[in-house]
Write a structure and sequence with these properties.
- This protein is mostly helical.
- 68% of the residues lie in helices and 0% in strands.
- It contains five helices and no strands.
- It is elongated.
Length: 160
C-alpha cells in the first residue's frame, strides 16, 4: 500500500511541477526545439535524466527508509539521513530543479527557465518556513544534529 501511495503522490506532486506546468508553459507559447540534438538539447536531456534519477531515488528512500511518502499529508515516520540525504538535506528538491533546468535547456525556453528559478525560490521559502520547523518538531535533536552536519542546498561529503 505504501508503494501505491508513493506512486500516486509522485504522479501528482513532482508530476505537476516537472511535467504538467512546463508542458502548459511550452504548449501555450507554441515553443519548439530550435535545432534537434544541438548541444543544448543534449545537455537538457542529461539534466532531465540526472534530475529524474535523483528525484526517484529520494522518493524510494522516503518509502524504504522513512516508511512514508513525499506528500506532507503522508510524511516519512523516520528521519531519512542516508543515500543522497547524507550529502545534502534537500536532494529531492534539487533533483526537481535540475530536471526543470534540463527542460529549459532542451526546449531552449526562457519561460521554463524563469519558472524553474521562481519555483526554486518558492521552495526555499517553504523549506525555511515550513519543512524545517516541522522536521525540528517531529524529530527533535536527531534533526538538529543532522541539520548541523549536512548543508541545506550545497552537497558536501559527509564527515568521518
Amino acid at each position: 500500500m505504501l508503494a501505491l501511495r508513493s506512486l500516486v503522490y509522485t504522479i501528482i506532486i513532482p508530476g505537476t511541477v516537472t511535467v504538467l506546468i512546463p508542458y502548459l508553459i511550452l504548449s501555450g507559447r507554441g515553443e519548439r526545439i530550435a535545432q534537434p540534438w544541438a548541444v543544448l538539447q543534449v545537455l537538457g536531456l542529461v539534466g532531465m535524466a540526472v534530475g529524474a534519477t535523483i528525484l526517484l531515488r529520494c522518493i524510494w528512500e522516503f518509502m524504504a527508509t522513512g516508511r512514508g511518502t513525499l506528500a506532507p499529508i503522508d510524511p516519512p515516520k523516520e528521519l531519512v539521513v542516508r543515500g543522497l540525504y547524507r550529502y545534502v538535506r534537500n536532494p529531492m528538491y534539487l533533483g526537481a530543479f535540475i530536471l526543470l533546468l534540463g527542460e529549459a535547456a532542451f526546449f531552449e525556453s526562457f519561460p521554463v527557465l524563469l519558472y524553474a528559478v521562481a519555483w526554486f525560490m518558492t521552495i526555499n521559502l517553504i523549506v525555511l518556513l515550513y519543512d524545517e520547523p516541522v522536521l525540528r518538531r517531529r524529530f527533535g535533536d536527531s534533526y538538529e544534529r543532522y541539520a548541523a552536519a549536512v548543508h541545506r542546498w550545497v552537497p558536501r561529503r559527509p564527515a568521518g
